[in-house]
Description:
It is built from 1 helix and 6 strands; from the N terminus they run αββββββ.
Amino acid sequence: MMSVEMKKVWEVAKKVDDLLRADDERFSRSAEVIHEDGSVMILENAFVEEYKDWYIVFSEHFGFHVFHKEDVYRVSQHERIEIGVMKP
């Protein structure tokens, strides 16, 4: 069962998620969540937002995920860049 605080955060995240479109430029990033036990979740086409003591990871294909800041070791997002090919 969700705590009252987590339910509020989930409701905020749901409102944002309902307004997102697949062509949102923030989906050009990837998000990485490292849990305290060392397990890692990496989502391509995703971005991270902070809300009070929470991280919300929004993904293009897998909805959103809510994490309390005390429950994760690290949360990060990465910009996708094009890597050039050197020609001799």
